[in-house]
Structure formats: structure tokens, C-alpha cells
Amino acid sequence: MKMTGAEILIKALEDLGVDVVFGYPGGAVLNIYDALFQNTKVRHLLVRHEQGGVHMADGYARASGKTGVCLVTSGPGATNTVTGIATAYMDSIPIVVFSGQVPSLMIGNDAFQEADIVGITRPCTKHNYLIKQTKDMARTIKEAFYIASTGRPGPVLVDIPKDVLAGTAEYHLPEEVKLRGYHPNYEGHQKQVENAIRMLLEKERPVIYAGGGVILSDSSSLLSEFARILGIPVTTTLMGLGGFPGTDPLSLGMLGMHGTFRANMAISHCDVILGVGARFDDRVTGKIDEFAPGAKIIHVDIDPTSIQKNVPVDIPIVGDLKDVLRKMIKLVKGTKEAAKYRKKIAPWRDQMAEWKSTHPLAYKQGKGKIKPQYVVEQVYDLTGGDAIITTEVGQNQMFAAQYYLFDNPRTFLSSGGLGTMGYGLPAAIGAQVAMPEKLVVDIAGDGSIQMNIQELATAVQYRLPVKVVILNNGSLGMVRQWQELFFQGKLSHTCLPQIPDFVRLAEAYGAAGFRATKPEQVRDVLRKGFAAPGPAIIDIVTDPNEMVYPMVPAGAPLTKMLLV
Amino acid sequence: MRHTISVLVENEFGVLSRVSGLFSGRGFNIESLSVAETQDPTVSRMTIVTSGNDQIVEQILKQLNKLVSVIKVVNLTNKETVNRELVLIKVNADPETKAEVLRLVDIFRAKIVDVAIRCYTIEMTGDEEKINALLQLLKPNGIREIVRTGRVAIARGM
Ligand SMILES: Cc1ncc(C[n+]2csc(CCOP(=O)(O)OP(=O)(O)O)c2C)c(N)n1
Ligand SMILES: [Mg+2]
What we know:
heterodimer, A: alpha/beta, six-stranded parallel sheet, 20 strands, B: 158 residues, alpha+beta, four-stranded antiparallel sheet, 4 helices, 28% helix, elongated, binds thiamine diphosphate, binds magnesium ion
């Protein structure tokens, strides 16, 4: 039976198990919306801005591990997705974005609502397609999902001209994908794994440095098992938070620019680093020539380009972390060497404990202004550490990363690589769609929240009870912090004098609004906001002068931390 | 150091911009690039001449491999290869210098492929050194225009 391209798209989504699409209609995708009308298998959520739609698909993917899907029209609909796609690309998140395109014959003519979105997104997608013929629809869609979700995951864009959507073809979704140029390597090289273990066991001051790859590959429990067998301390990147339990005695917390003292000291004084699913990004390494000067480096990653990119590596292992960690565990589990090793490196662990006690993360909540760190700690306490936390970007993001202890993967969703303000609210909505039973909280800034505030309407419409906790410091706090520290306190355009009344704004959208201005009100408004049946904004007026510490100035070595 | 990289790619629209975009986006340099279909019409071959230290070239090879449209990447640099380039040269041919130009064409086993008043168009294939040598010797006569294809290369033997 012949079907239209639009019908093929919807049928393929059904057959691929896609249960939700975040979308926004327009002229070029009318055929798809017609095919969606009264469809009961694929749920469509009408977003309020295409950027929000992509972040929702992204939040959905991060929370669930499934591939997120977004659907937009041509031209401005498509260009509005770019920031969302780039965000997913930098953090390796599996999403597929479908964009409508002007009819094939008009492509290149500057037709109404034409944009070369395949050209525009080439550098920020894992791969992208322009479908030329209706008969290619099903195969291309299958490939798009396959590429997005395998190997190192990432966004894939599929651009579909209007005539291809209207044209007809037989529906045939291939069982398997055959791509001559795409063969992700999952198996870690056994010899290299053995070499890595040998090198680890020879050393005295090991550190495991874990990134977002641990979460993407669902190998956090294997990582915990491995670290505990050998008693090796673990530090994670921002993206790796939740990949190793934050409350575990072996946890050093986050490293890097706003990492903990002990994590940065550990990485700077260790004699071997086992890097897993991380990419030695500049926010993590600080000054690259002085990064981990005395350490050998073992680097495990599924993406060969991540290895040897920023730092020279002694033992590279390309493969799926799951496979490599299993092999590593097999080599050490229950062995005498492992027991001996745990004992041998006990003094190193004692050193961590000492650093932790001499230089803990710290702040003082007095009677006056509300400290943002205090707010995050109360959120942690009231949610029992069991919420899904999304963040915006800036100080809010760093305080969330430092003061909420993440014990489980897929519970901390934040734009790490691109640092996209406006990510948190739509990502929270996407996460809530994926995890209806969970409490989802966006820890936000007063600046960032205004970048995608319109999605509050989406949350209200679909009764998605996300909670937005605004750390309202009246400024673009993180930029202000840099101006304070590195530009002689000249606060050029970082104060936000015209902040809306967020409580009334929430109410205008049909959500609930709460506010705290004094420390003793914080717990109470948080409790009320979390208990509200629908979405809520909890506006907390915080100390406008608070800074995020420790801080490693950009380009300085990790040991040169500015402390409180 | 200079490297010659041979890349087999899907013969489909947009592949060239994926590859060239990779080079420009990551700050890698392209000295020359040539593309054409292979014996299999669904596959094209690109020959890219680039330069960089070992770490950069390692990244270039890995990044190329990562592109979904790239089927195979071979670094020909330290292999036994045949390298060729084709050049077309428009050179002045005045009554006094004509004989000298013809002599050079003969010595270099090049060809005159077009003749106009006071101007010859010369075609020559060879490796870069040979082409550069001819250009050097023709220079005093006044070169009006040159077109070079950039290097193509193939491994020796099987
Ligand atoms: C889209 C975008 N534009 C600009 C920036 C640069 N930037 C980083 S943090 C920040 C300030 C964010 O302010 P706010 O959301 O109030 O967070 P705070 O630091 O005050 O907690 C800015 C402007 C960015 N990260 N993203
Ligand atoms: Mg702020």
C-alpha cells in the first residue's frame, strides 16, 4: 500500500517506538501535522518556541536514555533549532530533529521560508540529511535514529521538502542499517585494558576522572564497582555528575574551574589518571601545560577523536565504557592484588580526607541576605537528593553542581559544553515528560530564565508540574563575577534592573508563584512550591554579591584556585 | 610536515562541504584538494594535501574517519606512492623567445595545447618538483596564467 511521505514519517516513528514529539507547525510541515491529527500512538507536545522544543527533546533524552524527537517547519522554524542542536552536539545527546523544507524545485531560489538548514547545521550535528525522494523516507529515518543513538551519541537533523512529504511510496522500514562509513567500535582492546590495569596497580596515587560518557553509556554502576574494588577516589566533570554517587566516601566532587579543592589538588598531585568518558576540556584542565604534571594518563572513550586531542595519553583505549569497565573488573575483582592495592593507597585516600576537612565547600548563611548555596542545600534536603535537577547557566549552575549531591545518573541535566542560558526550563519539561513520577526542578538564574520563559505555557498546558527555583541575584551573576575579579569591578551591562515580578509572571501563565526574601522563608516557600499540583516558579531573592568559589581563573593551573 | 591523505567518500551531494567544513571549522589547513569519482560510481576519492605536526595530523585522520559519509581514510605520506599533478600554463611567446619556450616544452615532455598570437598554452603532468622547475624556467618569458589541479596520488604495487 502506498503512503504519503508524511504518513511514512509518522508510521516510522511509531515503529521505532517514539512515544513523544516536541514540535511547532508551519507551512512546510502541514502534511505531517495532518498525518498526526488524531494519531494516538505518537504524542505531540506543542511547544512555544522551537529552541524550547529541541531542549525538551534533549532533556527527555538525558533523563530517559531514549532518543528525543523534535519537529519544526522550514526557514525560521529550522533556524530557531540551531542553539538547541548545538547544545545537544556539545554534550553528545541523542536527538533527531525533523525540519520541513520548501519544495525540491524551489530549493536555492530564496523561496519563502527557505533556509539551508542542512548547511547551517552541518558543523553542529553528528550527521544530517536532505531527503530527495519519498521512497528514501523510511530508510533515512531509520538511519537517523541509528546514528543519533549509537557510538558517541549526538543530534541528527533530517530536512524534508514539502513535495517529498506529499509524494507517495511503499512503506518499508529496514530491519538493519548498513552504512559503509559508520562503524562505532564498542570493544575495548583486551591487551590495552591489561596494560592499563598493570599501570594503575604500579602507582600509588590514582584518580578516576569520569565524564558524561559514563552516563551516556549507562555504566555508572560498573564504575562504582570498579572504583570500590580498588579503593580509587573519583572526581567527575560537570557532565559526569551522578555518574558516581556524590555521597560515596570515594567521591571528590567535581573538578575544574569551579571544582572542589580536593578534586583539583588530587588531579594535580596524582601519579596516574584513569579518564573514562571525558574529554579533557579546558574548563577541566586549566592551563594545559601544567595539568597533572606527574601523572600517567589512561584514557577510555568511544570516540577516537577525544583521545590525544588536548593532552598526550599513555594508554589509549577506544571502546564502550561498559565493555572496558567489565573487562577491568574481571581482571581485579576478588584478587589479592586488589586487596593489597586498596591498602597501599590508603595514605592517598587519607590525603583526600584531609584536603576535604581543611578546604571544604563553604559559605555562611547569616540572618541577612539569602545565600544561593543555602537555597540549593535546602532543595537537596527537601527532595531527599532524589529529584531530577536541571540548571540554567551561570552561578546558578555551579551552585547546583557543588551543593546538590547527585547519587544517580540522569538526574543532573545541564548544558555543559555549550553553556546555553535558557536550557533549564525546557529541559525540565522534557525530563518531566520522560519521568512523570519524578520531581523535576530547574535551578535557574534571573537572567537565564528569561531566555525561554515562554515554555511555562507548555508546562501549564500539558500539566507538567516542573518547579523553577530562581536564584534571583539581580544580575548576570557569573559575568558580573568575572568583571569583579578580572575587570576591576566595572559592571558593564551585567546588572538586571528591569526584572519582572516572577510571581505574577507565573500567575499570568497559569502557574503558581512563590517568593522568599529572608532566609527563614526559604524552606517554607520551597515546600509550598514543590507541593503545588502544577508548575511553579519559586523566586528567591539572593545575595547580589555572592561569588562562586573555588575558582580557577581561565588559563591558570588547577592548583591556583581562588578560595573564599 | 606535509601529508597526503587519500579519502574515499560516498558520492553524494554535500560531501565536499562536510570535508572542507571539517578542515575550516577545526582550523586545519588544506594545501590542495582534488575529487572525482572512482571505478565504483557511488564512491568518490579525495586527495588532500595538508600540513601539521603529528598530533594535528592524527586529529585530521580521526576526524575524517568520524564523518558518516567517509568510507576510508589512508595517509599516503610515508608510503611508496606515485604522485602526479597537472598544470596548464599560458606563457608569452614573442618572436625572440618562442624557440626557448618550445625547447623547454620538449625537454620537460610537456605539450602545447593551444596557440594564440604571442601566447602558448602548455600542458604538463608530473610531480610537484618537476612542475615547479618548469614554471621557474618559463618565468623570464612572462607567465600570464597558471591552473594547477593539486596533487593526486596512488600507492605503488598491488
Ligand atoms: C545564550 C547565552 N548568552 C550569554 C551567555 C554568557 N553568560 C554566561 S553566564 C551568564 C549570566 C547568567 O545570568 P543568570 O541566569 O542570572 O545566572 P547567575 O549567574 O546570575 O546565577 C551569561 C550572560 C550564555 N552562557 N548563554
Ligand atoms: Mg542572576
